[in-house]
Amino acid sequence: MNGTTNDKEESKAMILLLGLRRGGKSSICKVLFHNMQPLDTLYLESTSNPTMEHFSTLIDLAVMELPGQLNYFEPSYDSERLFKSVGGLVYVIDSQDEYMNAITNLAMIIEYAYKVNPTINIEVLIHKVDGLSEDFKIDAQRDIMQRTGEELLELGLDGVQVSFYLTSIFDHSIYEAFSRIVQKLIPELSFLENMLDNLIQHSKIEKAFLFDINSKIYVSTDSSPVDIQMYEVCAEFVDVTIDLFDLYKSSQQVDKSGKAVQARPRELKNVSQLGNGVILYLRQMIRGLALVAVIRPNGSDMESCLTVADYNVDIFKKGLEEIWANSRIST
């Protein structure tokens, strides 16, 4: 590849996915961006060439996976241009393997990346933790964080901020981690959070997420803490809604002369009341986004709750359209 990214890919909304061979990078991409079942990733071959994944939310985001055996610092590879062009560097460490080599490699990459791009976000996935006990997870995280800090201190980089996440493709932790990573690259994040807080304040909504429908990454949520179980329920509701939506295709419409006419595209929407009375509410927004909200009626009837929610979500959607229009003008 020799660093030859085109102009569209050379935006700050690009993430580099790095790590040693067999660390789980390709599996992460397949699960996140291709809806591959985690068990099916066991049969993936090791990546030998850089690969690129794209998805568009409020930003056009590219995730570039680089092979573990690639030497980024050889003369023929334009590393400076590559590292300057990205907003986030995500390094995957296999928690079930001997990870000292990975930490040394990570520190070397951080030293170079930070020199050419001081604003880059450094993210570390402590991956494959599904096979570890809770105590061992915490011990591994503490050890990796400490050793990484020591390596960076030796390089004179003790001021560099590094975020660490415990992840697995067998649960929602990888989606949660990537959601937080992507959010750092969205300039309008504070506006989105304020808008969601305002939506909640004027509705009986307890929690709201703005999902990228295809990847189930949430690009924003309100300012209240994220409960991982609530996030999992909402993410699974997205899956169910899409499955049902795809099951019932629109029938072709005809005009008076019998000619087929273009049917108006259906809006993705779903409402479901759980056994405990909680309402799950999903509405399609713009650019592959959907709002998913958890509503607690608290004595109110379901119909009145949904009427208020629909009205306020319409206002929220118009606000999103304005943000998107303004961001296009400014770029």
Automatic annotation (TrEMBL):
Keywords: GTP-binding, Hydrolase, Membrane, Nucleotide-binding. Component of the GSE complex. Transmembrane segments: none annotated. The lineage of its organism: Eukaryota, Fungi, Dikarya, Ascomycota, Saccharomycotina. It comes from Zygosaccharomyces mellis. GO terms for molecular function: GTP binding; GTPase activity. One of its GO terms (cellular component) is fungal-type vacuole membrane. This is GTP-binding protein. It catalyses: GTP + H2O = GDP + phosphate + H(+).
